[in-house]
């Protein structure tokens, strides 16, 4: 096992405590303190909007961090300097607890700093391995994900108590201290890491090959007389993106900009795939096949976006539901307590810490014994389906609440268990899948696209959230006999179930590759 791994793992544990410590109290803080000037009927919707806009930022900025690391600074320097911005953001949250603009500045700095380092730490772990010890990589990726949830568990358990008993300055200040410690630990290991240098300008890079493919003219026109049909498709996507941006006054900037990005990526990718063979000759066969591999990976990433739209709402929609539920008096070793709504999120990381070793020691060996190989794509597809079932259960609980029944908060344990099992199968596997499938020169960027899937998942939440406020949609929901929140729960469940089926179909056609570096 590489001796530098403990520094990266310890850094990740402290950083995840800091991130989830502030993230998991964000919705309760917005509802109880910062957004009190908003009418109570609109406060929940606005709190969800702020929360998911923040998450969108966190998972958008990996594009920037990955690009800077791959082309200029390298992974280590990028992680270190973005971590300092991250610490500054935490300081703003603690200082500007009652100042809307100052608090939002802190959220922006955390989104920028956290997002910038997010793909790099995972990729940095992979850089410490080569063909001689790659068999250890899965164990370390699992340990990496385990420590994330170790930090998240204690943050989820303790920070709601600090928010209630000591106020937001202390509750947001403690995660800032942990982030400062994380940065220090990472710096202490600087002499032990394997540093893969930034890639020099590459004439056969993904963007170069894609540009050549789009601009190359066919020797003879095809596809209804067009010599460059892929360029036409990509241009249509660009035009649709401009139209989306023009809708900013009606949709809001975040929805319009994210929709524009999705359109550019989707139609641009289709256009490149249509004309990719035209890049041969001007670029090496290896480069062309590398681009083809990336495009196939991006389809997998796109199909995981519904999972993220469901998963991230446990810190918004599920907390809103928990606020309306009864919390019974519990007793452990003579200590009597009642769970706060935000503390229910601690169920997720503690289950992850149990399920990861359970899967490796029991579930996957049993599957192999039965002749079922638990490939990464099979695991991910099953995880999406389990997340859909979790939302069916949470929707049923909401129907009990809407019917006037007193429902214990402990009923949320079942959907948390289903969602967590889905998370282990999708998220932990996705980190391993993304690194192993990415060509060597594009590992930072491909991991950035993996995190961009989370941005798109939260975009779906904002779109549904905005749609429910529409009078026509609201009237249609009222006619269904469901409350708006119950309707959204079943809608998201159906969305994920449909995509799980599509994922299974695509997984049967996907061919795995091995892109670990040589010794």
Automatic annotation (TrEMBL):
Keywords: Membrane, Peptide transport, Protein transport, Transmembrane, Transmembrane helix, Transport. PROSITE patterns: PTR2_1 (PS01022). The keyword NAD does not apply. Coiled coil: none annotated. The keyword Glycoprotein does not apply. The chain crosses the membrane at residues 20-38, 50-69, 78-96, 102-122, 143-163, 169-188, 226-245, 251-272, 293-311, 350-370, 382-401, 413-433, 445-465, 485-507. SUPFAM superfamilies: MFS general substrate transporter. It is found in: Membrane. It is a multi-pass membrane protein. Belongs to the major facilitator superfamily. Proton-dependent oligopeptide transporter (POT/PTR) (TC 2.A.17) family. This is MFS transporter. It comes from Duganella margarita.
